[in-house]
Amino acid sequence: MGGESSVGRPRADLVERSMPFLPVGSEIRQVFIGQAAPSFAFFLVTYLTGLTMFWIKYRCVAVTREAIYVLDSSKFSGGARPQQLLGTMSRRTRLGPVSGRWGRVMLLGEQHWVHKRFHAQIEAADREIGFEW
Questions:
Q1: Residue 130's closest CA among 103, 95, 84?
Q2: 79, 31 Cβ separation under 8 angstroms
Q3: SS3 per-residue string spanning the chain
Q4: Which pTM was predicted?
Q5: pLDDT of 22-33, one tens digit each?
Q6: Tens-digit pLDDT profile for residues 114-129
């Protein structure tokens, strides 16, 4: 558990930890972790030094056929342990494209940075609703 995400298989640990916050019967199609920061420079300082970690917001994002669920996660888990549902976005929302080591994604009006290991999950979510990169 907890390895790299592939296009067809979301990380099992993230799926399991996200399910309690979703409607009963939901099927998570894709899942990824993001970190909210006011700018990439601010985020980069946290990534390199940890000095601004307490100002970064950690999110786990679960995508189902019906909606996109944005979950608040604990800082010390790096986003891998959701704690509450923050909000729901329309499933017709385009998440990508993302590129580079850290791709930018807008979630609930905030910019988030998503590591490249999760980019395939974002691409798969967009492709399922008809967006091509």
A1: 95
A2: no
A3: CCCCCCCCCCCHHHHHHHHHHCCCCCCCCEEEEEEECCCHHHHHHHHHHCCCHHHCEEEEEEECCCEEEEEEECHHHCCCCEEEEEEEEECCCCCCCCCCCEEEEEECCEEEEEEHHHHHHHHHHHHHCCCCC
A4: 0.88
A5: 999 999 999 999
A6: 999 999 999 999 999 9
